[in-house]
Amino acid sequence: MIRVNRTDRLYALVEELRAVAPRPRSARWLAERFEVSVRTVERDISALQQSGTPIYAEVGRTGGYCLDKAHTMPPVNLTPGEAVAMALALKHLDATPFRAEGRSALRKLVAAMRREDADAAQNLAACVHLLGAGPVPPMPHVLGIRRVLRIRYTDRAGTATRREIEPLGYVGKPEHWYLIAWCRLRREIRAFRTDRIVSYSVTAEVPPLRRLRPEDLDIPYGDVDQLTLAG
Predict the structure, then answer these.
(1) Is the pTM of this model over 0.85?
(2) Which of 67, 66, 73 is CA-nearest to residue 112?
(3) Contact (Cβ atoms closer than 8 angstroms) between residue 192 and residue 139
(4) What are phi and psi of 38, to 5 degrees?
(5) What is the rounded radius of gyration, in angstroms, for the C-alpha atoms of the chain?
(6) Which residue, 136, 129, 192, 132, is CA-closest to 161?
(7) What is the pLDDT along the chain (231 residues), one digit of tens a residue?
(8) Total Cβ atoms within 10 A of residue 47
């Protein structure tokens, strides 16, 4: 018996049906496996069908739900960074008629990723915040690095300093990206404009766990929205 949250359960349902396709699994069998009610399984299956997953019901005493294996994708070999990059790219579709289709495509791709990669992508997306409604600039190379960084940074006055920083999150504006990090030089959280990072190197040190608080993202220019892979 296994108990998982709904997102993981939807993924697991598809993988369970894929593994036995074209044989069916009954709603009661699936309910017992995932320790939920039959009604919950039926709602989950309906949600998957509405998202385009080719699941159909086979009637009869030995019937149940079947997955059309010929029309499904195996786990997609997307990296977490690639998934987040796609979510950012889809922001350019927000003002187009293809906004809903783009979000639907992203949800399907994330659902088809290996579970550990999908979890890592969700965690990375939770670190990315967007400021303003306009399109964001290209993603900086430092995005997604979860190690202590040594950087050479130039401030707005042109003064260069060398620092060790612990990345915590990222804020994208239509003009610039900011890396939010704990600065060991200043001993506080600072926002570094990524185009002012002259050079950087990645150390082998994994920084201690720190959490970004809402007040750490209290930027005077407007409200920030967390990036999501849910579309």
Answers:
(1) no
(2) 73
(3) no
(4) -60, -40
(5) 22
(6) 192
(7) 445 678 778 888 888 888 888 889 999 999 998 889 999 999 999 988 888 888 998 887 778 999 886 666 565 677 888 888 888 888 777 778 888 888 888 887 887 787 888 888 888 888 888 876 566 666 666 666 789 999 999 998 999 999 999 999 888 887 888 899 999 999 999 989 988 999 999 999 999 888 877 777 766 555 677 888 875
(8) 13
Contact 149, 167 (CB under 8 A): yes
C-alpha to C-alpha distance for 123 and 81, rounded to whole angstroms: 11
Q: How far apart are CA 10 and CA 156, in angstroms?
A: 48
Alpha carbon distance, N-terminus to C-terminus of the chain: 31
- H or E element: which one contains 42? helix 38-50
Taking CA atoms, 218 is separated from 58, 212, 215, 225, in Å, by 53, 11, 5, 11
